Amino acid sequence: MADLILMPDVEAELEVLYSTEPNTAALFDVLFDELVYHKEVLDVLCKPAYHHLFDPPFEIKLFQEMWRRGYNIFTMRVFDERGSLLPRRVLIGYHAQIDVYYPLAFPNREVAYDTTDTAFADVIHRYAEANIPIYR
């Protein structure tokens, strides 16, 4: 069965997010707890889909540009209780050999897919820290 692990750097980033965007951080926390509790959803999380019956609802997609580079990274769009998109995305790495998901970062949606943004170096660093293979 799949698992979801928050690495220390990501936990620290989430704590900082609580001080600036507490509602967003809380929804991410709730979602991670729900995913860990509902292993059947984690088992199919790497299949792009819109999980509208989940609380909070979310959509997951393959990060196409990073996939072409060999990185197994997904983007997660999370919706609040009113159905509005949160101002941030969750970038998640997936280590298929051990069936573990690692949230990597919570970028603003304006730069979430910009691999040239300086903050994206943290995503690559955390991907490596999680020992997720680069598939080439």
What does it look like?
The protein has 136 residues and is of the alpha+beta class. It contains 5 helices and 6 strands; from the N terminus they run βαααββαβββα. The protein has helices spanning 8-20, 22-37, 39-42, 64-68, 120-129, and strands spanning 3-4, 49-51, 58-62, 73-79, 85-95, 100-105. Strands 1-6-5-4-3-2 form a 6-stranded mixed sheet, with helices on both faces. Strand 4 (73-79) and strand 5 (85-95) form a beta hairpin. Helix 1 (8-20) crosses helix 2 (22-37). The longest helix is centred in the N-terminal third of the chain and has 16 residues, at 22-37. The radius of gyration is 14 Å and the shape is globular. It starts with a strand and ends in a 7-residue tail after the last helix. The model has no long low-confidence stretch (mean pLDDT 92).
What is the strand and helix layout of this fold?
Elements: E1 3-4, H1 8-20, H2 22-37, H3 39-42, E2 49-51, E3 58-62, H4 64-68, E4 73-79, E5 85-95, E6 100-105, H5 120-129
Parallel strand pairs: 1-6
Antiparallel strand pairs: 2-3, 3-4, 4-5, 5-6
Number of strands: 6
Oligomeric form: single chain
Continuous helix count: 5
Helix vs. strand class: alpha+beta
Distance between the termini: 26 Å
> Largest sheet at a glance?
6 strands, mixed
Q: What Rg is obtained from the alpha carbons, in whole angstroms?
A: 14 Å
N-to-C series of helices and strands:
EHHHEEHEEEH
Shape: globular
Helix content: 25-40%
- Taken as a percent bin, the fraction of beta residues is 25-35%
The overall pLDDT, averaged over residues, is 92
- Arrangement of strands in the largest sheet: 1-6-5-4-3-2
Low-confidence stretches: none
